[in-house]
Structure formats: structure tokens, C-alpha cells
Amino acid sequence: MSEKDLQDSVPQDSNDVDSIESVEPQGENTESKNIESNIDSIIADSKNSDKKFQWYAIQTYSGSEQSVKKAIQNLIDQNNAKDRLKAIVVPTEDVFEIKDKKKKMVQTSLYPGYVFVQIDLDTRLWHLIQSLPRVGRFIGESKKPTPLSDADIKTILDKVQNRPAPRPKVSFSVGEIVQITDGPFANFTGVVEHYDMASKKLKLNVSIFGRNTPVEINDVQVEKTM
């Protein structure tokens, strides 16, 4: 999934901003930072890893990625299963907004509603993780966890390794017309019906072949038509 680079939108004149306030996402901890700062070793380990360790995507409630990550780590510890888990990754980006000449920087998830784990998964561990609060399910076919492809996990880890430049916080208004720039509905325009700022997801009404079709999409997959 491609993302639009908004680096050019970042104000360059520091005199316009009195101060910068940095805010970390809820549940962020030292171990989380260590995993993402050591992403080179995670990538190398992924290439050389025993095939029993696979990468999976776990769907969570939007905004709960960090708390779910911590809950999985605690679950692994409580079940003496540290040898079954190699990594948990929640890719993040820096988003800022300016209010009263103060720039507030916040870390948000690049993949709202998803946590990625490299794990030696069996049925028991699968069900234990899936029963955790705020966890939806493992992504997979026939309701069973399906490992991510090498190409998919490479894309995800590359984004962790090469964090995008801070981008401005974007908001959308109901009734606003936007153009879809990525995904199966690319180049279609849609009318905003709802925008969830926490999950960064838009609900659009898109006219496809003369029929109004509801579409849910990430805000990085659209741009304003002005």
C-alpha cells in the first residue's frame, strides 16, 4: 500500500512555531523502542530465520495497537513461551498539528488496527492471543492464521526502518469530495460520509459505474480535490 509523501507540507520557518511538544502513543515502552531501533537485526533475522517462525498480522481495535503489543508480550512471559516469539512490530509515524503557535508531535500507527508478530505459532498460542482484550483475529484464509509473504513483511519492515518524514495531521469534513489515489478504487472520487481521526479511516460514498458504493479506506490513500 503506497503512501503519499507530505514532507513538502511541513512548515520550514521555525520562527512561526514557539515550541514543540512530543507525545508518545499509549502503551509505548522501552522494549517497543528497542525493537524498532534494532530493525536491521530483525530484517536480517527474518531472512535467516527457522521456517517455523513466521510473520503474522493480528487485527486489533484501532488505537489499541500498543496495548495489544504489551498484552502479547505479557502473555508470552506468563506462559514461559519466550522461545516461541522473535519480534512484535507496530510501525509508527510522526504526525504534527499546530495550535496557538505550538507544534504538537504525536506517534501514530502506520497500519491502524494491526500488530505484526514473528512467532512459532501453534493452535494453543493462536487461541490464547486471539482471546486477549482488544484483539480481533489473525489475518488468514478459512478463519485460520496465514503467514505473511516475504514481499509483504519486507514492505512493512522497510517502513519501520525508513520512517517517513513527519506529516501534518489531516482532517476531513462530511460532504467533502476526495480523490482515491491508491488501491482498487484508485482515480475514483468519493464523498466523505465519516472520518475517524483515531484510526485514520474514511467512509466514502463512491459512484462506481453509476451505482453508489460505500468504501472504507485509510486517509493516506486519498487526497483533497480542493
Automatic annotation (TrEMBL):
Similarity section: Belongs to the NusG family.
Protein name: Transcription termination/antitermination protein NusG
Signal peptide (residue range): none
Domain NusG-like N-terminal: from-to ranges: 52-160
Spans annotated as Disordered: 1-38
Gene3D superfamilies, A to Z: 2.30.30.30, NusG, N-terminal domain (3.30.70.940)
Protein purpose: Participates in transcription elongation, termination and antitermination.
Entry-linked SMART domains: KOW, NGN
The entry's keywords: Transcription, Transcription antitermination, Transcription regulation, Transcription termination
GO CC term, one of those recorded: cytosol
InterPro entries the record matches: KOW, NGN, NGN-like_dom, NGN_dom_sf, NusG-like, Rib_uL2_dom2, Transcrpt_antiterm_NusG, Transcrpt_antiterm_NusG_bac_CS
Residues of the KOW domain: 171-198
Record carries keyword Transcription: yes
Pfam families cross-referenced by the UniProt entry: KOW (PF00467), NusG (PF02357)
PANTHER family per the UniProt record, alphabetical: RHO-INTERACTING TRANSCRIPTION TERMINATION FACTOR NUSG (PTHR30265), TRANSCRIPTION TERMINATION_ANTITERMINATION PROTEIN NUSG (PTHR30265:SF2)
Biological processes annotated in GO: DNA-templated transcription elongation; DNA-templated transcription termination; regulation of DNA-templated transcription elongation; transcription antitermination
